[in-house]
Amino acid sequence: MIKDQLTEAVTEALSALGVDPVPDTMVVERPARREHGDWSTNAALVSSKAAGRNPRELARELVDHLDTPRPPHVEAMEIAGPGFVNFRLAPTWLHDVLVEVVEKGEGDFTRLNLGRGKTVNIEFVSANPTGPIHAGGGRWGAYGDSLARVMARCGYRPHKEFYINDRGRQTVLFGQSLEARRNGEEPPDGGYAGAYIEEWAAEMPDGADPVAWGIERSLADARQVLESMNVTFDTWSSERALVESGVEADVLDRLKQSGLVYERDGATWLRTTEFGDNDDRVLVKSDGDYTYFTPDIAYHLDKYNRGELLIDILGSDHHGYAPRMRAALRALGKPEDSYEVIIGQFVRLVRHGQEVKMSKRAGNIVEIRDLVDEVGPDVARFAYLLQSIDSPQTLDIDVLSAEAAENPVYYVQYANARIHSLGEEAVKRGVERLPLDQVDLSRLDHERELELLRQLSLLPEVLELACNDRAPHKITTWVRELAATFHGFYRDCPVLRSDVEPELQQARLWLAEGARIGLAIGLDLLGVSAPESM
RNA sequence: GCCCCCGUAGCUCAGUGGAUAGAGCGUCGGUUUCCUAAACCGUGCGUCGCAGGUUCGAUUCCUGCCGGGGGCGCCA
User: Fold this and answer.
1) Does residue A177 sit in the same domain as residue A34?
2) Beta A347-351 vs A393-396: how paired, if at all?
3) How many other C-beta atoms are found inside a 10 Å radius of the C-beta of residue A391?
4) Distance linking the first and last C-alpha atoms of chain A
5) Measuring from the CA of residue A264 to each C1', which nucleotide is nearest?
6) Beta strands A84-89 and A393-396, pairing class
7) Which domain holds residue A71?
8) DSSP secondary structure of A367-395
9) Would you state the pLDDT for residue A222?
10) Distance from the CA of A90 to the CA of which of A73, A241, A317, A479 falls in 20 to 30 A?
């Protein structure tokens, strides 16, 4: 890969100039502006101190050194600004990218090995099974599932997990609410009052245990709607089953061995402050019951059977929970970096220009189902993945539905549809794509063609960032830009028109194939379909 | 009071230690004798919330403040 070749060349040159080791802030990167070349390095800037020379002077020497022999594809090097070295490459480097893309295909192009086979347990959604999942929960679903896809492509082995809180007060209240409705009564104080309670109560068979039936009903609903958005889980873990197996006592014993457990006011506490929590936490209440915390610790311990690294994706309303779990796992001897918490910010829904306030118990929720039914699974999923999980998100339902045609997901899918239609048209016109090694890719020299190739060449860097930053939305940004460069190419560079020379036509057909592969990879990582016609 | 996240163009949001800060939508105007106009092209005088600090260089890192969201139970 060109980046590695350039990095190696720069590193060698620096060490020949007495800079060894090379500062780890040294990068070879793509400059933001085209005028600054195809690639550039800050090597002279970050090494000037070690070299005892001013940056531009060092840059000069660096360039002289790199000139004999020049790294592959390099046509010119320039010193710019405070001491950047910019590399101007022949378009051949981009033609090589296309060869790599089509030879490796959507299965292997940009398959990284950052994870080296490490297993990762990713827990997300985990909504209480007391009703349908609201539209906010869809964000965790889309995010978690896509993060798993991104990590899988980067050499991790993810295991997706949904934790079911099928025990405790909320489930009891939920069951009572169902039963009350079934008997035509009002739900109990603090119970659930949504319209779905009435619908579900009517479905409930005679003699069913309302709690157990209600939980199953909720889970079936969650599973179905999440699957419609292409969000799936490898394991659905039941808190009740865990508790019934009696693991809490084991966990308590193990925690006691850490010496961080103590009794106070009749309760049993864990000294989580030892590991940075604000307060110590109760494990066993003074009435003898476990708090929710204890089975949760047991659950996390159990998850280590399904992952060396644990990732919890939580809504920002649970962020206070992270320090205590981190502390508990450290008390149990788990390495600090084996547990990661990702805090997702909330989704605000807007309809008719007004925010839709949601409360499950009051019953005025917007379900994911409503959203998916209204705008379709691809639109919903793409919308969730449009921005960083750190940012509060505003989804305007009217914009997503009424203006569906201008939705960014269609823009991307349309690019794919155009490529397929190009293929069909080629068949109609009797044009066959020759084997790649018989095609002269150097014919690709139009700015639109080069832009498209540049965008494709960016995927490895983007994927690595998306993985390391746990930021699948970076894939969304990239695939939108890929679609944009394709549309530009499609507009200005006819492929099958009769006035296009056969050699150029062949090269362009392969370029379209490269774009198709890029779109397929990107959309797959996002869990969004790539329709062949629209 | 303490903790987490956010504050970038009219709106929704990318970007984040570098060289003139971007996209979509919206506005206005243009583009089609053969490959899908769900497209393309042009059109934006933004104190990157404010003030300090670190740095050769800060929208990006640190501190404080202001504004918004969320959280601070022997609830889950």
Assistant:
1) no
2) parallel
3) 11
4) 36
5) B74
6) unpaired
7) 2-90
8) BHHHHHHHH-HHHHHHHHTTS-TTS-EEE
9) 95
10) A479
A50 CB-to-strand B distance under 7 Å: no
Residues 134-163 of A with CB under 7 A from strand B: none
Single out the residue in A376, A401, A426 at which a domain terminates: A401
Cis ω before A435 (30° cut-off from 0): no
Decide which of A90, A105, A138 is a domain's last residue: A90
Q: Assess whether A393 and A413 both reside in one domain.
A: no
Name the most confidently modeled range: A305-314, A344-353, A360-369: A305-314
Q: Clarify whether residues A354 and A207 are in a common domain.
A: yes
Average pLDDT over residues A12-18: 89
- Smallest CA-to-CA distance from A508 within A455, A445, A456 is with A445
Q: How many CB atoms lie within 10 A of CB A364?
A: 14
Q: Does any domain span residue A130?
A: yes
In angstroms, the CA A513 to CA A490 distance is: 12
Of A159, A91, A88, A153, the residue nearest A119 (C-alpha): A159
CA gap A283, A338 in Å, rounded: 22
Closest-approach nucleotide to residue A492, Cα vs C1': B40
CATH number for the domain spanning A77: value is: 3.30.1360.70
| Least reliable range by pLDDT among A2-16, A102-116, A228-242 | A2-16
Same-domain check for residues A180 and A40 = no
pLDDT band at A363 (very low <50, low <70, confident <90, very high): low
User: Are A396 and A422 found together in one domain?
Assistant: no
Model confidence at A399, in pLDDT bands (50, 70, 90)?
confident
Q: Is the per-residue pLDDT at A402 higher than 70?
A: no
pLDDT digits (tens, 9 = 90+) for A36-64: 889 999 999 888 878 878 888 899 999 99
Query: CB of residue A495 closer than 7 A to nucleic acid strand B?
Result: yes
pLDDT at A359 over 70: no
State the pLDDT confidence band at A364, using cuts at 50, 70 and 90: low
**Of chain A residues 368-407, which have a beta carbon within 7 Å of strand B?**
386-388, 390-394, 396, 399, 403-406
Number of domains in chain A: 3
For strand B, give the nucleotides within 7 A of a protein CB: 2-7, 12-16, 18-20, 22-26, 34-41, 56, 68-76
Q: Same structural domain for residues A72 and A132?
A: no
Q: What number is the ipTM of this complex?
A: 0.95
Is the domain of A502 the same as that of A481?
yes
* A227 and A354 fall within a common domain: yes
> What average pLDDT does this structure show over A199-211?
94
Q: Where are the alpha helices (DSSP H) in A120-266?
A: 137-153, 169-182, 195-203, 210-228, 239-244, 247-257
